[in-house]
User: Fold these one by one.
Assistant:
Number 1:
Amino acid sequence: MVPNVERALDALGDPTRRRVFRRLRNGTRSVREIAQGMDVSRPAVSQHLKVLKAAGLVVVRAEGTRRMYAVDSRGIEALRGWLDGFWDEALAAFKKAVEKTVKERKPR
């Protein structure tokens, strides 16, 4: 699946979903492991994982009867690329402003 940045941002807009996603930072986890200690049910965690998967942020694989979830690096790379575009634009604008200031201060 090709990551969709808009869908990924929408998926991460939910605070519970962000918590679920954060729990995958340190590696692959089952729904039970992700839900442990959270104030939402396992079925609710499963629904959040379904949204994260559809957004290209999570991958799932079967391991016997369990489903194991992990962060999909392609989704993270797509988000980073999108955000880097803002950084590039900000740096270009900063460079232009500095060059203009330097030019204005030069004695003629």
Number 2:
Amino acid sequence: MNKRALIRKILAELTSGLEAYVRAARAAHAEATHEQSKAENKYDTRGLEASYLARGQSKQAAEIEAAIAAFEKLDARTFGSGEPIDLGALVELESAGEQTLYFIGPKAGGTEVMHEKREVLVITPQSPLGEQLMGRKQGDVLQMNIAGARNQHRVTRVE
């Protein structure tokens, strides 16, 4: 699988999300500072609520900017079959005949992209699954509790 192309797709997804948050933050800021948002009495909190919303959206935009910067610096190296899983690895897990692909990214866990007709989910080393995968190798078996049930997953591929 072309890892550089995968990282470009992740960057495109993050950039798209960033643009949406920036637009939303600007709109919320404009509403918060608009003269019609001025409190008419002590119970009128429209302006205050809009300012909280603008602040939260600006913070989210800053987090996405940091994720973009981290992915731009990420090395797209290929992992050998005997190498331990680390940051930048593309990992395929198999459970009950179903394969899932995960990319161990520096940030932006939960981001999903379609790559080469397969869905790839970005996870971070700090996530519960990421913690269990770090240092594992192709062929290793993981025991995970998902929704109260203990499931077995095998690492079928590390790139």
Number 3:
Amino acid sequence: MTLDRNSPLPLWAQVLGDLRTRLARGEFTGRFPGDEELRAQYGVSRHTVREAVRRLQAEGVIERGRGRGTFVTGTLIEQPLGALYSLFRSVETQGFVQRSVVRYLEERRNEEAAKVLGRPPDEPLVYLERLRLADDQPVVLDCSWLPASLARPLLQVDFTRTALYHELQARCGLRPDAGWERLRPVLPSREQRDLLGIGAHTPALAIERLASAGTTPVEWRHGLVRADRFSYVARWSSQDLGAGFEPAVGASH
């Protein structure tokens, strides 16, 4: 990576971003480079390297031990922003084995979920709750609500090793192609911490998603993601017309 020394983004933040990308690619298996090695790679000061590494350590991604060096505690799984992705596919394509522990798969009524999906408050819904594992390590607690009138065939599916959207298309003829997603940091409850295998006062990311097939909402999902295992990345280019820059000082309007 070539650092941009004219960028308003601090050098330590640029180094941190590149290290997260390299971690997501699985470049570091077990041992993590030392400060001197990173300083030589990036051509920056020791202080800059230490600040980037300190933040990775605070996130729980790496662990330092006296006499043992620095080690990766868990490889980051990279997820795209601004795209309707499949977690199953993301995890598998990055070299992990994805498996789900299905906690609930049943028909329920839920007024809040029905409202989000644009359905009458007493309409039956399919409720799917899964603990998602990557290489047998818990990473996501997922809860999905779908209109039963559209998704009732899913009640017969074994979701241990398959993707919801794949089954939704194969069994119900519905292919999600639009939607929105929100992320925010939260402190999980004790039950949620126990399921995800994280300690007290450890933050997680709460994710809410509404997926639609055409103009029909087909899934409302809410869940918790281990913040120490996921890296969410947004990419853009000059073709993205919605991405603009602040006008220069003194520029004409």
